[in-house]
Amino acid sequence: MGRILDGNTAASMAPKDIFFTRGVGKHRTRLQSFEVALRNAGIEKCNLVRVSSIFPPECRIISRRRGLSRLEPGQVTFCVLAEISTDEPNRLIGAGIGLAVPAAGSNYGYISEHHGFGMTRTRLSDFVEDMAATMLATTLGIEFDPDKAYDERREIYKMSGKIVRTQATVQTAEGDKNGLWTTVLAAAVFLM
């Protein structure tokens, strides 16, 4: 019989801390290249559960080093994860996580994820940061022209005083020249 969660239990499941990590891996099989990327990111020992894109109110951003030190082998770990693989030589792949944090700590923010082909690190960083900031701006009622370039909208977001921080964590790589599977990933890892 399943356990029924009351309001207090559900509230305790809101993450208190978050950290960001990224990794790249190469191997002759796709699955093992993913494992190598997880190892490179430092989260291979966890049972990862993918979740959607809400940055909890009052959540603290901690360093990768500090976050990794709190993980235990076999731990069920919630994360927003972007990942992509290729076995095509020299094909550019990228995975990124964007974050937008509201000025009011009692509000929630947004995390975005994207993976794809052919995007440089800079372009992917701007893209995921833009997605997160735009999602947050729409919930906060910030008026902006969605057809304007992100640099212009970023200034509007900052001037509103409602968005305090945006950032991106991305990993790019070119497919292995000898056709090994290459996997890249980026993750926002939640800690309770």
**What is the architecture at the second tier of CATH?**
3-Layer(bba) Sandwich
Low-confidence stretches: none
Outline: flat
What is the averaged pLDDT score?
Answer: 93
Helix content: 25-40%
Task: Kindly name the structural category.
Answer: alpha+beta
* Secondary-structure element series: HEHEEEHEEEHHEE
The protein's oligomeric status is single chain
Q: Gap between N and C termini, in Å? A: 25 Å
CATH topology: Pyruvoyl-Dependent Histidine Decarboxylase, Chain B
Number of domains as seen in the coordinates: 1
Write up what this structure looks like.
With 192 residues, the chain is of the alpha+beta class. It has a single domain, classed as Pyruvoyl-Dependent Histidine Decarboxylase, Chain B (3-Layer(bba) Sandwich). The protein has five helices and nine strands. It has helices at 7-12, 30-41, 64-69, 121-140, 150-160, and strands spanning 17-27, 47-50, 54-55, 60-61, 76-86, 92-102, 109-117, 163-174, 181-191. The protein has a five-stranded mixed beta sheet with strand order 2-5-9-1-4. A four-stranded antiparallel beta sheet has the order 3-7-6-8, covered by helices on one side. A hairpin with a 6-residue loop joins β6 (92-102) and β7 (109-117).
